[in-house]
Write a structure and sequence with these properties.
CATH architecture: 2-Layer Sandwich
Strand order of the largest sheet: 5-6-7-9-8-11-12-10
CATH topology: HIT family, subunit A
Helix content: 25-40%
Number of strands: 15
CATH class: Alpha Beta
Shape: globular
Distance between the termini: 43 Å
Radius of gyration: 18 Å
Structural class: alpha+beta
Oligomer: single chain
CATH superfamily: ATP adenylyltransferase
Length: 285
Amino acid sequence: MGDLDESKINDVFDQLVSEDILVYGPHESIVRDAEGYPIEFRVCEHLTKKPHTVGAKLSSAFDKSRKWGPGSDMYCPDERLILGQLNGTHDLALNLFCVDKPQLLLLTLDSYQRQEQPLAHDDFKAAMEVLRRFPSMYIMYNCSETGGCSRTHKHLQGLRGPPFAFDYMIRASEGKAKVPFQFFTHHFSQGFFHSSDADVLKVYTKLLDQARELLGVDEASVCPHNVIMWENRIIVIPRRAGFIEGASANAGGMMGCVWVPERKNVDEWERLGYANVLRDLGVPS
């Protein structure tokens, strides 16, 4: 993986798209306002092929592929999806269903690890390597189905930054704006490049404890939350729901970029009220 760069990743990406192995296509962008909080809806028709809930079946074309290890509910229809390994603990791969070019997966080699588990030291070590190697990418994690995940094999994702509402959220953390839901954040003044994995894990643990307290969840129970890492900041968003009627969001959605397969999903957000959906998916501020 020593010579891997974004140009080479994009070459593999384009080849797999041309062969209909990787699911990607154009999208319509619809920008809305949730009581001041900016939201972009990306209407991606190709996402109709994606399973949106835990346990949802893939199409028969994918079901014939090998699973990503014993106990995994993720499929690898082509070995070229795997870009390399991170520290002997994670595969770095292309996401099979993409809204960004490229969209990365950091998938645990221990395929029995689950998405309802908090992030651990090895996860942060892999995440930090990706952030340092690909500075245009941000990292996100959807903890549990309530946190917006659709597959249970533990994985983080890398997408092209910045998250849509990132600057607004930072202003909110400084008391200069208001977000419909509560979140916790920490800025690493020394930067991710000069922070150790242990430093980041320690901060995350503190933020997760705050999320547990807010949700009333003890350490023995699942704490649904989202994690975002970008521009030397980590953000933790406590979650109360993955879906509200016809509206849903993962970590990217809570950060202002909601991916939907059809225009009617945007209409459902509008019917319920954009800020109301965010409050119900998270914890009202």
